Amino acid sequence: MTIVIKGGTVVTADLTFRADVLVDGDTIAAVGPDLVGDEVIDASGAYVMPGGIDPHTHLEMPFMGTFSSDDFDTGTAAALAGGTTMVVDFCLPAPNESLIDALQAWHQKAGKARTDYSFHMAITWWGEKVFDEMPLVVERGINTFKHFMAYKGALMVNDDEMFASFSRCAEIGAMPLVHAENGDVVAFLQQKLLAEGNNGPEAHAYSRPPEVEGEATNRAIMIADQAGVPLYVVHVSCEQSHEAIRRARQKGMRVYGEPLIQHLTLDEREYFNADWDYAARRVMSPPFRDKANQDSLWAGLASGSLQVVATDHCAFTTQQKRFGVGDFTKIPNGTGGLEDRLAMLWTRGVRTGRLTMNEFVAATSTNIAKILNIYPRKGAILPGADADLVILDPAATKTISAATQKSAIDYNVFEGMEVTGLPVVTLSRGRIAYQNGEIRSETGTGRFVERPAGPPVAKALSTWKELTAPRRIERSGIPAGV
Ligand code: URP
Ligand code: ZN
Ligand code: ZN
Ligand code: ZN
């Protein structure tokens, strides 16, 4: 059984051309003119692109006394409806828990997935057991380790732990990720604001100013450089953080930055809404910023200093958000976006001329496939690549509404926004998984994607670090000491 996508324009990270795409089983069999298959999908007038990869989701995440409400079933249904064919979630070991045990628990949860998936392993505590298990995690197909510099008393790790973990990553060909916010300063500001009677959702934003993100980003970059390892900074929300990344990249450091579609399109005024629920639904970390920061993030995507647009999809219902009535520090942090990332980025990015179509593909799929060392199996339209594809109709339009979304929560942070350029068909490993507004893939059809250690950039960096390491000067005539 083969499928041919006919009459469309193929758009990849570097090329745009008219071609049919032939899918045979799980993979792409051919790309070219006049291809023939058993089943035909008409893509005339539309773009055929690599399926979106969202490298930052929290499905059924245990967090702040509850679990995020989209699990691997509803979350990946939302992903498919939004043209995303792979998610990378975060495995979070409990304090003192074995990384391998935690991984097993996450594999269990992900059994419901409708898209392919992978995990980042979070370093939530530090000790010899973690050090010993990190290579075992890599053997199990995970080459990235996440570090939270915020959430003091919960997920946060300190600088010495981070340096030890980053150094271990360098040894085993893995890459660290950071949530960069100064957790000590945030904890202080939270208590100060509460003591002053500032307990509403707007205080969440005041407790996490851009400076705490810029400082932490710079600190993580410096620690990664000393450890000799590339670094990936998640949810870059502001100029302060972007500036640190830009500066490091210009010095030759291997640092990647990931803005979210939320920070590109929503700003801090959301927290000033008089409706408590409205504002609390938008509480996430880092918070939405002064609008001026958006220009910086868009410019970063255009110029290459930022590479990936993600969602950090972490969906809590209004009921869950109300845990924080009277105390903003108890509002579960997180927002959704999986279903809207591509349409929003197309509408606000490609249609405005901030991004080319090829840059759009790079930011939603190809760049992260390369960074995570799964390219060209994912992120490419090439014979042999997984047939993870999205057909985007640039003329299709809709108004975003919670009433019609696949996500399990009762609101949408993009509610009422009009988007033009919609994913209309999504193929997941060769199967039509979304078409005509309907999810067609079954729960449990997604597969774990193994990601090998030692991507080219890590190898290049370790070669360079070795070459430029301090070396003892051998001298002949050493004078006698006094
Ligand atoms: O507020 C957020 N971002 N929630 C999810 C956890 C995280 O920090 O990424
Ligand atoms: Zn198969
Ligand atoms: Zn985070
Ligand atoms: Zn996150």
From TrEMBL:
Catalysed reactions listed for this entry: 5,6-dihydrouracil + H2O = 3-(carbamoylamino)propanoate + H(+)
GO CC, alphabetical: cytosol
Residues with PTM N6-carboxylysine: 146
Protein name per the record: D-hydantoinase/dihydropyrimidinase
Sequence similarity: Belongs to the metallo-dependent hydrolases superfamily. Hydantoinase/dihydropyrimidinase family.
InterPro entries documented for this protein: Amidohydro-rel (IPR006680), Hydantoinase/dihydroPyrase (IPR011778), Metal-dep_hydrolase_composite (IPR011059), Metal_Hydrolase (IPR032466), Metallo-dep_Hydrolases_sf (IPR050378)
Post-translational modification: Carbamylation allows a single lysine to coordinate two divalent metal cations.
Record-linked CDD domains: D-HYD (cd01314)
Primary enzyme class: hydrolase
Sorted UniProt keywords: Hydrolase, Metal-binding, Zinc
Role noted for this protein: Catalyzes the hydrolysis of dihydropyrimidines and of the structurally related DL-5-mono-substituted hydantoins, to produce N-carbamoyl-D-amino acids.
Complexes and interactors: Homotetramer.
Amidohydrolase-related domain boundaries: 47-430
Species this chain originates from: Aureimonas glaciei
MF (Gene Ontology): dihydropyrimidinase activity; metal ion binding
Any coiled-coil regions, as ranges: none
